[in-house]
Structures are given as C-alpha cells and as structure tokens.
Specification:
The complex is a heterotetramer of chains A (173), B (352), C (153) and D (387).
Chain A: H1 2-6, E1 12-24, H2 27-37, E2 41-45, E3 52-53, E4 69-73, E5 76-85, E6 98-105, E7 111-116, E8 129-134, E9 147-152, H3 160-169
Antiparallel strand pairs in A: 2-3, 2-4, 5-6, 5-8, 6-7, 8-9
Chain C: E1 11-23, H1 25-38, E2 41-45, E3 51-52, E4 71-74, E5 78-86, E6 99-106, E7 113-117, E8 130-135, E9 146-151
Antiparallel strand pairs in C: 2-3, 2-4, 5-6, 5-8, 6-7, 8-9
Chain D: E1 5-12, H1 24-39, E2 48-52, H2 65-68, E3 79-82, H3 88-101, E4 107-115, H4 121-125, H5 138-154, H6 159-172, H7 187-191, E5 197-198, E6 210-219, H8 220-225, E7 231-240, H9 254-267, H10 272-275, E8 278-280, H11 288-295, H12 304-309, H13 328-331, H14 335-351, E9 364-371, E10 376-383
Parallel strand pairs in D: 2-3, 2-4, 8-9
Antiparallel strand pairs in D: 1-6, 1-7, 4-6, 7-10, 9-10
Classes of the chains: A alpha+beta (173), B alpha/beta (352), C mainly beta (153), D alpha/beta (387).
Chain lengths: 173, 352, 153, 387
C-alpha cells in the first residue's frame, strides 16, 4: 500500500483512437489521378462560365451544372502566390525551408498547389513561369507526387494580376 | 407563428456501397432534382443547412466539400450541424420563423458509412472517460435496451421480429430501398444473435446515401407546391446519456419532444420512426402513443436503408412526400441521435 | 474526352489515429485513483441522497456542481441490471473471447456502470446476478484498470 | 428579427494552453456559471442550449455535447450543436439569438468551447487523406500565400503584420482572461520570432488554447425585467462561399463583403469606421487585420494596412476604431469559442463591462467570426440601446 500511496493521483488519462477506413475518393479526383498515373494532367470545363477546373469535378462550384468536358492541360504554368515553409510538422517529410505555390497551369483557371524547387526560395515570385519535373515514369502511381516539383522555365514573367482578373471576369455573375 | 412547409424531398437509392462517387458527388444530383421538381434554381434558395459527421467521413470539415458541389456562388447564407441532418432542418425552420426574407431553405444530409465500421465509429459518441475506452459498439448498447424491455415483460423477441418484418414488407413498395422482403418471423428468430437478444434483422443496414429537403414559407410554399406538408409542430429534447442512469424501457426525451411538437393525442395517418434498432420502434410507439390504425414506417423505416446523418431527415422527407402526393393528410416524423434514443426530434406535418 | 462516373473510384487505406490525452477533472480523477491504488469504487452522493456510480460532476436534480467531498465508497460487488451477450468481440473490447456487456449497479449505488462480464457462457448470465470486479495487475489509472467483472462465486 | 433579443450574461474561462485541472464539462461550466451569475439566473432558468465547436477530431469525441448534456443542465431540454469551422462560435450565438427571435424560447444559453490540448491541432484540422500529398504544414501555411498576395497587391510594408501582433498582444494585457500575457511584448520581440511560413512569423500567429465562452441571451421581456444590463442585438448575418472556385478572391472574399453589406443595411450603417465604437474581428494571423479592414468596409481596397499602421485600431494609441480590445484571436484561440468570444466581447463593450479594455462610452459594436479558407462569415451588431 505504501507503494501505491506514493503514486501521483490520476489527473489525465490516455484514450487512443484509431478509426480505419477503406477510403474512396470521388469520380472527379479518380479521373484526375488515373490520368496522372499516365503522366497527363486533366481538367474539366464549366459549361456556364467556361472556366477550366483542375482537378476535374462532376459539378461546377459556381453553378452546380454537371461538367462533362475534360480538357488536357500542359505541365507548365505561372505562379500566382506562394509560401516559404520554415517549420517541420508532425508528419512532414520535406526538408525545410521549402516553398509551395499556387500554380495556374496554361489553359486552366483554378490553381493547383505544388512545390517550387531548383530556385532559391527568395527568388520565387508571382508571375514566374514554371514547369513540372516528373519522377521516372516507372515510379508513376495515382498521385500528384508523380510530379516531384515545379521549376522555373526561365521564360519572362507573366502579368499575374491581369491573368487573375481575366479568370475573375469569367465568374458567374 | 409563420407557416413553414416541406415542399420537396429527394434521396439517392440506398446502397450498401457507393463505389463511384464521394459524398458531394452523390448529393449534387439529389439537390438538382428537388430544385427542378418545384421549378427553382440554386439561386432561389435563401438559406442552406446540412448535417454530417467528420469521423464517419474520415476527415475534418467534411461538409465543406458539399458546399463546393452545390453552386455556392454568389455566396450563400449557410450553416451546418455536426450530426444528424434533421437538426439542420430544425435550424432552417427556426431561421424561417425568425427572418421574413428567408422564404426558401435547402436542407441536406449525407454519409458514406461503407468506408468504415459505423457500429464501432459511433462508439466515439459515448463518455470518453468511462465508456469509449472499453469500445462498446452501438449494437451492444441497443441490446442492453432490448434486454430491459424483455426483463420488464413489456415485449418479446417476437415483437422485435414483427417490427423488422413490417419494415421490410413496407419497403417492398419503396423503389429506393436497399433491403425489402417478406421474411418469416419465426425463421428470423432461429438466426443467431449478434448481441443477444438482438439479431441481424433488428439492426439497420450499412448504407451510403444522401438526401435533401426543401422548405418554403407561407404563400411561397403554396405557389411552389400544390399541397405543401406544413410543419405544425417541431421540437427536440435530450436525455442523460449514461445507460446506467436511464430507465431504458422509456425515452423521456422522445416523449417530451412529442408533447412539445403537439404530436400526442392527435390523429395521424402515418409515422416514420428513425429507430435504428427494432426495440426502439416499440419504445417510440409507446412514448408517442401512436393510435391504432396508424401506418408505421410506410417507407420501411431505416431497416430498408440507413444513410447515417441523413436517415432522420429522410423520415421527415418520407412523411412530407406522402402528404404532398395526397397519400396522407397528417403524419409524424421522428429523428434521433446518441445511444439508445438519447436525443429525439419530433415533427407534425399536415396537408391542407 | 468526357468526365463521368462509369469507373469505380480509387480507394486507399486510411486511418484517423491519435493518442488523445485528456484531463479527468477532480471527481473522475479521484474515481480512477481509488480504483488504481485501492481497488475501491467511489460514487457521488447527490443532494437528494442518491449515490451515483460512476460519479458525475453535476447534481442531476439541483444542476449545481458536485465536489470530491460528495464521494462515498460503494461496491466493489454489485448486481447486473441489464446485459447482452456479444458473440464476436469488437476491436478494443475488454475481452477477446465472447463476453457479456452489462450494466452493473454496485452495492450502495443507485445507478449502474457499463462494463464487461467474463461469464464463460451466455447461459450463466441473468439480470440480477451478482458480480465482482477483476482488476488488472498493472494499473495505470482509467476504466481499463478493471479487466472485467466476473460472476460472484 | 421577429422578436428583440439581448445578451444579459457573459462568462469565459481564463484561456490557456492546457487546462489539465478540468475535463470538458468542468471547463465549459466555468464559463457557463460566470454567464449565469452575470445574468443573475440559475441553470434551471435556462430553456435551451446552443453549443458550438470546431471539428470533433480535436477532442476525439463525436458530438461530445451528447455525453455532456446532463452536465450542461439540459436533460429533458433542447440542446443544439453547430459546426461551421472557425466561424462556429459566431454561428452559435446567431442560432441562439434566432431561437429567441423566433419566439420559441425566452432564455437561451450559447456556448463555444474547445480543448485543443487533447490532440495535435494540425493533425486534427487536416489529417492526411489517401492520394493527397503533404504540402501545407498547418493553418499558417494555408493562409500565408493569401497574405503574400495581399502584400503584393496593396504594397503593404512588412512591419504591418508585426504592428498588429504587438497591438493585440498589448490589448491582451488589459484582459485577465486572455491566454497570452506577454508583458514585455514589443516590435523587436515579434520581429525576432522565427519566420515560420514566410511572410508570417511565429509571433504573428494565434496560440493554441483550451477555453470556453458562454452568453445568456434573452427575450425583451426578460432583458427589461432582469437586473443585468443588456446588450441588444441589432442585426446578425452569415455568408459562405466555395473553397475551390477558380479566381476566388481569398484576400478580399466576396462572402465577407456581402455579409457586411447585408448586415450594415439592416442597421443603416454606411460608414463602419465612424459609426461603430469598436469591433471584435476574427484576426487569427496578424495580416488578417488589414485584409478584413478592407473586406468589412473599414478601409478602401488596398488601404487596410494604412488603417492598422495609423494606430486607428489600437486602444493604446487612442485609435478612433479600436479592434480586438480583448487581445483577439491572436491572444487566445480556443477555436470553437473564438467566434463566441468576439461576439461576447463586443457585447461587454456596449454593456460598459469590459474593465481595463473598455472603450469609453461604447454604444455600438461589431463582432465577426471567420472560418474555413476565409470562406465562412458570421457577424452581429450589438448596441447599448434597443434596436
């Protein structure tokens, strides 16, 4: 009893939770991932606004209309905005500092998010032209990680403000 | 009090597993269908409200993906309840009572339980200190309630089987039902128990699905719908959760909600119970004093399909749809959440 | 090219997992401490004289806060007020062989707690039966310090 | 609103990183007991409870209000749970006000809470899903690109974010309930904190808090006859917009502009900077202050940073439109309660009960809560006089 009395009173308890899922992504995301497996990037066009969404979606975010027209997009685009990460998080595998950006692919209206590398982080800027650097095709799976990162193309910057304004002009009134 | 009615209802077919679409993709055509049915567009909706559970969906903010699928532009007035979507209906109803400018409201719920084991996931609704660490599953908890009924001599396992048989028989006329049929109750009682005295037929199926209901107020409802299902009363109440603190043969909160909604001592054609387990159906009949001759669960209840977090809203939709079609004049809809009928909502719907 | 849902969506294994650590508060803390250190159960005495075990923090009649001063000893034996036989235990359950879930009213308490009863066979189980707790050898504080209950004698 | 509604009681916990002395019920009752005491009511007087909380993954309990129902005095009564992301604490107050506005109840308790210490907030908010690569590293990482775009667009100098952080942390020193009490806080101190998500420094981010905030709302009848001084709710409004709309303006979201416009119209506000005496705005990261100043009409587009820079939003600098006198989300962030705190602090101001953080003679105040990807907005206006 002496041993027991020496113990500290209970003030907290550990209650682990583990819920397992056989998770399935949707039809739009699956279409995108299956194409990525083949090294292709797909978007879908909204019939009401003409905007091209990447990844494709079954319905338009703005109008809820079904979107059935798929569009193949190039693996290059322009940086809209970005963030430089200097902190490691719980399951983070990337070496810091790293930068990720909102990238508007040529012909697309929505931005995808991906890493920017082969460029010092302080040289990244809105309007910068970038292109994808792919893994070896033998390693391709249904994952955006088939693209290792985007890197600068070296082309002249684009006017990002104009590009974004053109996209916004298409928005459903 | 302002008059508010359900004017349209839609749902996906109840399926054991939806293999092609995610929650938002399942929901979008249902919403499109209910709007089209009354000649409205997305923009005619003044308020949107939904119910869902992040732990069932497998990620946080799961309802946000639905907003992205429903055409929320220009920005919409919108809210969300964590849990059963019938409570989203309640929020929308309150909103319409409060704000004259809100004439049309959209309410929806959805869930894909097939991705996980729902009877174990809902264990997370229990006391996280005393109960969840033991991981009691939902069927076992319902079985403790069933045993209390048997011990009290109030009903028999045969009564439970008869409730299951009634639900499956009614489901034969429900084209969206996942389960239906005419099993022999004696044969059902020969099957093994899962958690005694409960057997498979006493439990709801695992279902993927989505549903949507449209509400409209006053003359707007009359203009959009020949025979709106007017909400004459709507109320919800909750009980203490711990099973060891409750008289499990009763559901006090169901009774109190029914009284507050004006559902007791009134004639009705139909009632739809959100009773996941057959003994709960029996308890609700008693608490709501359902008169002889009332058709209970004309849709088959949730034993034909249980799109969790939307299944209670479906009950309101099923009663309303029958009133709108002229098949019923006055009905009661019930929704629940929490173990063993802990929290209950009761609504009285009526046609003119 | 057309976007449709004709193909099955992609699937992957996913787990939501976290070792939540939570504060017990004074009343449950004492409840767990006494189970861990003394194999002793505490209930809480309310304003109307009812003894609730497991203890609660709020008096259900007055709605006022209760304190550790309201704790009284109950049990450790008790009787089953309702039960179910689980043929196939679920992951995380107290026992891996078929067992009964039971609501157990410990001697001196007016409410029941939920736990497992290791009865060996469903035929042993009946409402009103007497049970006693079986504690774990290594107790760390928490409801799982009780392995289960077993039939008395 | 059909019937008038007032805030007649306010209570909150001392927000902190880990409340290890209380469990869920113990923590939220601390706030509720204070609100009831303020309203001179007891638990039994309450007709209904509206409870708000951000994702259930944070505490690992699905709808914890179910198991807490009796501890919250709600056995046999209506208990209602709201979850609209970060804006939830505001939505909760609005739903509570509507229960009264609709004439359903006379005395409603509204409660926002969170116990973030029970898990890892980054995990809980965005657990990794199959097929989704890791990129963002936390909420700060999510919003940092928006701040960068704001800076590019407006030409705001780097020191604005630091200045806002210093201002709110200094305000927090006046608020005994605030989580962060950084007595030495100054420009250099914030500037020297690590640049976690460039352009966002550690010192410019909200803390992770355990805490709760409760309000007693009542109908006109009870507000008039009660002895507590009411804050009258003049108007409420909510707006949501999609997350992933191409060209969505994350810097100046239309949902926010529409929400403010609709809200102001109800009360006849045409110049918010002039007509409000103070505002409690959901500024979880420093750069949200200048951005939201533009969204909510306190400054012209591109000029929000000048408002912050001028000291107009600072109590210490004698600003004409103090924002977040309580210290704001930058000083306390129990997520589910953060919106409720904004709504409650605005009410405290017009009741003249804000203590050292009181704005002299405050009669009309704005409160705002923000959720998701700057896409969910909940707002109310409270005043010392009846609407």
């Amino acid at each position: 009893m002496n041993m027991a009395e020496a113990k500290k009173p209970v003030t907290t308890i550990k209650t682990p939770v583990a819920i397992h899922y056989d998770y399935s992504i949707g039809a739009g995301a699956s279409t995108f991932m299956r194409a990525i497996r083949e090294g292709r990037i797909l978007g879908a066009r909204c019939p009401d606004t003409g905007k091209v969404y990447v990844p494709p979606r079954l319905t338009s975010v703005e109008t809820a209309s079904p979107m059935s027209e798929l569009v193949e997009l190039p693996d290059r685009g322009v940086v809209y905005t970005y963030c430089i990460v200097n902190i490691k998080f719980y399951d983070q595998v990337l070496e810091i500092p790293y930068a990720y950006a909102y990238i508007v692919l040529d012909g697309a209206d929505s931005a995808i998010m991906h890493l920017i590398q082969e460029c010092p982080v302080d040289k990244i800027r809105p309007g910068m032209r970038v292109k994808a650097v792919w893994k070896d095709p033998a390693e391709w799976t249904e994952s955006m990680e088939n693209i290792r990162y985007f890197k600068p193309t070296g082309e002249a910057d684009l006017p990002i403000e104009t590009i974004m304004n053109e996209i916004r002009k298409k928005s459903y009134a | 009090m302002r008059e508010v009615a359900i004017i349209a209802f839609g749902q996906t077919p109840n399926r054991r597993r939806e293999l092609h679409r995610n929650e938002a993709e399942m929901l979008a055509p249902v919403v499109a269908e209910v709007l089209k049915g009354v000649g409205l567009s997305r923009r005619d909706v003044d308020f949107t409200c939904s119910g869902s559970s992040d732990f069932l969906a497998g990620f946080s903010f799961s309802w946000v993906t639905a907003i992205d699928a429903l055409g929320a532009w220009p920005p919409i007035e919108e809210s969300h309840v964590e849990g059963e979507a019938a409570w989203a209906l309640y929020e929308a109803w309150v909103k319409m009572l409060c704000h004259e400018e809100i004439e049309v409201a959209l309410v929806y719920g959805f869930g894909r339980q097939s991705m996980t084991s729902p009877r174990d996931v809902v264990t997370l609704m229990n006391d996280p200190y005393l109960e969840t660490p033991l991981w009691p599953d939902a069927i076992s908890q319902a079985a403790l309630q069933a045993r209390a009924l048997l011990d009290a001599g109030l009903c028999t396992e045969r009564d439970f089987a008869d409730i299951a048989v009634r639900n499956l028989r009614h489901a034969e006329s429900n084209p969206l039902a996942q389960l239906s049929g005419r099993p022999d109750p004696d044969a059902l009682l020969e099957t093994p128990t899962i958690a005694s005295p409960l057997r498979k037929h006493d439990c709801p199926p695992i279902t993927d699905g989505a549903c949507a209901v449209l509400l409209a107020a006053g003359d707007r409802a009359r203009a959009l719908c020949k025979r709106p299902a007017w909400i004459r009363g709507l109320a919800h109440r909750i009980d203490v959760q711990a099973l060891g603190r409750r008289d499990l043969t009763r559901s006090r909160s169901a009774r109190l909600a029914a009284e507050a909604a004006g559902a007791i001592g009134t004639w009705i054609d139909i009632v739809e119970f959100h009773a996941p387990f057959t003994p709960q159906d029996w308890i609700l009949q008693r608490e709501l004093e359902i008169p002889e001759g009332t058709v209970i669960n004309p849709s088959g209840g949730i034993h034909q399909g249980n799109p969790m977090m939307g299944a209670g809203l479906v009950r309101f939709g099923e009663v309303a749809a029958r009133i709108i079609r002229g098949e019923a004049d006055r009905g009661v809809a019930h929704a629940t959440q929490g173990p063993c009928l802990q929290q209950n909502m009761v609504g009285v719907l009526e046609g003119e | 090219m057309e976007l449709n849902d004709h193909k099955e969506a992609l699937r992957g294994k996913h787990v939501l997992q976290y070792p939540y650590r939570r504060a017990t508060g004074p009343i449950l803390g004492r409840f767990f401490t006494d189970i861990r250190d003394f194999g002793r159960f505490l209930g809480v005495k309310t304003a109307t004289g009812k003894v609730l075990c497991p203890p609660v923090e709020v008096d259900p009649d007055t709605l006022e806060d209760l304190s550790v001063n309201n704790l009284v000893e109950v049990g450790p034996a008790g009787c089953v007020t309702s039960w179910t036989w689980l043929r196939e235990p679920r992951p995380g359950n107290p026992l891996e062989r078929p067992f009964a879930w039971a609501l157990i009213k410990l001697d001196g308490a007016d409410s029941a707690l939920l736990h497992a009863v290791d009865a060996g066979s469903e035929s042993v189980m009946r409402t009103g039966m007497r049970v006693v707790p079986r504690f774990c050898d290594e107790r760390s504080g928490g409801i799982r310090d009780i392995t289960c209950f077993v039939p008395q004698n | 609103m059909a019937n008038r509604c007032a805030v007649i009681g306010i209570g909150q916990t001392k927000h902190t990183d880990k409340r290890l002395d209380v469990n869920h019920i113990g923590m939220v009752r601390e706030a509720c007991n204070r609100a009831l005491e303020d309203a001179r009511l007891s638990w039994k007087d309450i007709d209904a409870l509206v409870i708000g909380k951000a994702p259930d993954t944070i505490e690992g309990v699905i709808c914890p209000e179910l198991y807490m129902a009796e501890g919250l005095g709600m056995a046999g009564k209506p208990l209602f749970r709201v979850h609209t992301a970060g804006s939830v604490g505001g939505t909760t107050a609005i739903v509570g006000a509507e229960l009264i506005g609709a004439g359903l109840h006379d005395k409603v308790l509204v409660l926002g809470w969170q116990k973030q210490s029970e898990s890892d907030i980054t995990w809980a908010l965005s657990p990794r899903l199959p097929f989704a690569p890791p990129l963002m590293a936390g909420a700060g990482g999510f919003f940092a690109p928006h701040f960068r775009e704001y800076i590019r667009r407006s030409g705001a100098p780097d020191h604005i974010g630091i200045k806002v952080a210093v201002k709110d942390r200094r305000h927090a020193l006046r608020n005994p309930y605030a989580h962060l009490h950084q007595h030495t806080v100054c420009f250099e101190e914030i500037r020297n904190t690590p640049m976690l998500w460039d352009p966002l420094r550690y010192g410019e981010t909200c803390p992770s808090s355990d805490g709760a905030c409760a309000m007693v709302l009542s109908s006109e009848k009870f507000a008039d006859h009660g002895s507590a001084r009411p804050a009258w709710i003049h108007a409420t409004e909510m707006r949501s917009e999609p997350t992933i709309m191409p060209g969505r303006d994350e810097v100046n979201p239309r949902a926010g502009r529409d929400c403010a416009a609709a809200l102001y119209k109800k009360v006849g506000i045409t110049n918010p900077r002039k007509e409000f005496d103070c505002a409690e705005i959901y500024v979880a990261f420093s750069w949200f202050e200048p951005m939201l100043a533009e969204t909510l009409g306190f400054a012209e587009p591109g000029e929000g940073w000048k408002l912050s820079d001028s000291g107009a939003t600072s109590l210490d600098e004698g600003g004409d439109i103090p924002w977040n006198c309580s210290g704001g989300v930058l000083s306390s962030n129990p997520i589910g309660a953060s919106g409720t705190l904004r709504f409650a602090e605005a009410a405290l101001q017009v009741r003249g009960q804000a203590g050292e953080r009181q704005v002299d003679g405050a009669r009309l105040a704005l409160a705002h809560a923000l959720g998701g990807a700057s896409q969910f907005f909940a707002m109310w206006i409270v005043g010392s006089e009846k609407p």
